[in-house]
Structure formats: C-alpha cells, structure tokens
Amino acid sequence: MKISNKIMLLFALLTVSIITGMSFFVYYMANQHSFEDFYKRLEIRAYLTAHATFPPVGTDTLAYNYIRDRHLEKLPSEKEYILPVRQMDDVRPHPELGLPLQFYQEVIRNGKETFRSGERFYEGILYTHTDGNYIVIVSAVNEYRAQYIAELRRILIICFIIAAGVVIGAGLFFTHYILRPIHRIMNQVKNISSGNLHMRVESHSGGDEVSELAGTFNNMLDRLETAFETQNNFVSNASHELGTPLTAIIGEAELALSKERDCNSYQASIRSMLREAERLEHITRSLLHLAQTGFDGKKQSWGSVRTDELLFSVKHMIDRITPGNKVEIDYSLFPEEEEKMSIPGNFQLLELALSNIISNAVKYSSNSPVSVALAATNSKNIIIVRDHGIGIPEEDLPYIFSPFFRASNTKPFKGYGIGLPLTNNIIRMHKGEIIVNSRMNEGTEIRVELPSS
C-alpha cells in the first residue's frame, strides 16, 4: 500500500472514530435529557393537579383547571392519582398502580420521587393542605422519547455519512498535496544515472522535512559523484602506473632478443628490467597494504602505543631513509602527564602512516625544515606535521586520499599516489581523523587526531 493511501486511511479512521465517539456521547446525553424532560413535565402536571384538587386559601380551582387543560399539553395515556397520608409513616398503596412501597416512602421522605416501568413513567409529590397531607401521582407513556431519539438517530447517521465523505475527500487531497514534493523528488532521482551524476534534486528553502530530504539526496549525489570520479581516476592512474613498468620490461626483453648482443648489453637490459620489476613490485606491494588496511580490512593486533615513542621511532626511520633531513620534533606541546600519551592501536601500522606523512613533507619541501609536534587532551592525541614545501592546490585537496592520485604540481617529484590513501586507511582503522591545511608555495600542515580510548 502506498504511503499516501496509508496516511489517508489513518487520517480517515482517526477522524471517523472521533466523530463516532462524539455521536454516541451526544446520543447518550440526549437520551438522558429526554428522561429528565419528561419527568419535569410529569412534576408540573402533578403540582397543577394538586393545586386544582386542593386549591390554596383564596384561590379558584377553576383557574388551575383552565391553565392545565388549555395551556399544557395532555401527556399520552396520562393518569392522575391522589392518595391521603394519615401519618407520615402510614400510606396505603394504590392497588391499580402496582408501585413498590419504597416509592411512597421516598415521596414522604424527600417530597417527590420518580419511577419507571417500561415506557410508563411515574412522578409522585407530597402535597400539604390544610386538611392533611396527600401523595399526588401522575403517570404517562413517554411517546416523545421514541420520536425524539429516532429523529436524532437519523440526523446523526446523515451527519456521519457526510462527515466520512468529507474526511476521505480531504484526506486524499491533503495527502496528495503534502506528498507532491516527494513525488517530484522521486521523478528527479529516477532521471539521474551514472552518466549525469552532476544533476541535483530541486530543493526549496522551506526548512521542512522535504527540503531536508532533497538536501540529503544532493549530499549523497555529491558523494557518489566524488566516488565515481575517484574510481575513474584510480582506474586511469593504476592502468598507467602498472602499464609503464610492464611496457618497459617487455620492450627491453624484445630488444635483447632481437639480435645477438655482447655480455654488457645483456647485463644493461637485465638491470633495466630489474629496476622496472622492482618498481612494479613496489606498486603491487603498496596496493596490497592498501587493501589490507581498508576500513573493513584485515584485523590487526591491538595494544597500547606511546605516541612519544612512536614519534622517536619514525624520526629514526626517516634519518635512516633520508640522511641529512631537517625533521625536528617540537617538544613545546608535549603533555606533562605521561599517561595522556598512551593510545590503543598497532605500533607498526601507525609508524607506517606517520612515516608516509613525514616522508612526503621532506620530499615535497625539497628537504626544508619540517616540524613534528605532539599534543594531548583527556580524549585524544594530536600529531601535527608542518613543512614549507610546494603545498597542495585547493582544487586537488578533495582527492588527495584517492589511490594513485597525485596533485597537479607534483610532476617533478617521484611518487605513486599510494602513501596518503594508505595512511588515511590506517588512521581510520584507529578511529582517528586526518585534517589537511595547505597553501600553494607556502607549505602544508597535516594534523592527525587519534582517540585515547
């Protein structure tokens, strides 16, 4: 069932249920009112009967009879009874009425009482006259109630049918009106494919859930477009990086086999093929590391890592790989509490990640001074690497963690575009974050934040 039909159905059921409940309440209250109204009529008839039979001193009996007969409607099957009360606790029930003795006792005690037997209603009052006390009883059949309730029921049923129709119609209209922007978004999304990922869903500035949904779709399309561009870039660069050494190896082998050569020529060809094979082996090994350190990749052994010891180890590695480098560790931000410098993680992986960052800083700054600082809070350790190198173009920043991607200004420098993606995967495995700030020809600052627990 479509969501529009569900909304309409729920809206109709809720409204019809409320109308039904209110109708039953009105029906019940009207029914009770009809009883009270009829008892009130009987009471008035009883008092008039008493005054007409035993008029007060100085009044005319004919006047009461005239008012009762001319101005008061005679009730259906109306009967009147007058019973003398000898003593306040002594009354003789009327044999034709068949009323319980308790009825007469309540009339004497309270001054009046009502009783119902089927559709016949009784009203009794205690009337005091100069010559004694009397119980005046008036009874009649309540034919008005049946007519009144039948008319009320007819009106309620008609109103219920009209209201149900209006509610269903309004529900259909409003669900269509409310869901119309969603249908528009659905149609726009259906027209977006891998060939036109630059298209976006039209959104308005209403600030409601529909505009948030459109914004969510657009954010998702931004990520998809970036992912597709990254994938295309990866495929093209991987093909180039893997194809170049293979082409060189094949070319050297074909050249060596094309004719007889001396020993030195064969050795030169073999050395050339060895260099290209080592290059190819380095690329494939890097790709293997990249795959193994994916966010959902191979699980590594975990332990407690001291970040100060990690920096010293990375510095020693950089000194061994690049003698004469100008990497300096900045101790000014080191925390005084040693326990703050312990984080959970894998020492070898973190060492590989930081060595990639610092090696890049040394390489792309042409061995200019590189600063490495360590700071710690109660919740995380922060490692900051600053260089004064060539920087990263602003338009290239979104893609620096894509495999095989190299910034547009790095052509003079040797590299494969795998170091930073590998580093990013390692930091993500440790639930950390890499923040890159860079300016062209001014340098780059990379901040690595690793949680302490």
TrEMBL record:
A Gene Ontology cellular-component term: plasma membrane
Enzyme class name: transferase
EC code(s) of this entry: 2.7.13.3
Reaction(s) this enzyme catalyzes, per UniProt: ATP + protein L-histidine = ADP + protein N-phospho-L-histidine
Name of protein: histidine kinase
Species per Swiss-Prot/TrEMBL record: Chitinophaga cymbidii
Localization of this protein: Cell membrane
Residue ranges of domain Histidine kinase in the record: 237-453
Entry's Gene Ontology molecular function annotations: ATP binding; phosphorelay sensor kinase activity
Highest taxon of source: Bacteria
Keywords noted in UniProt: ATP-binding, Cell membrane, Kinase, Membrane, Nucleotide-binding, Phosphoprotein, Transferase, Transmembrane, Transmembrane helix, Two-component regulatory system
Record-annotated membrane-spanning stretches: 7-30, 155-179
Membrane topology: Multi-pass membrane protein
Main subcellular location of this protein, as a coarse class: membrane
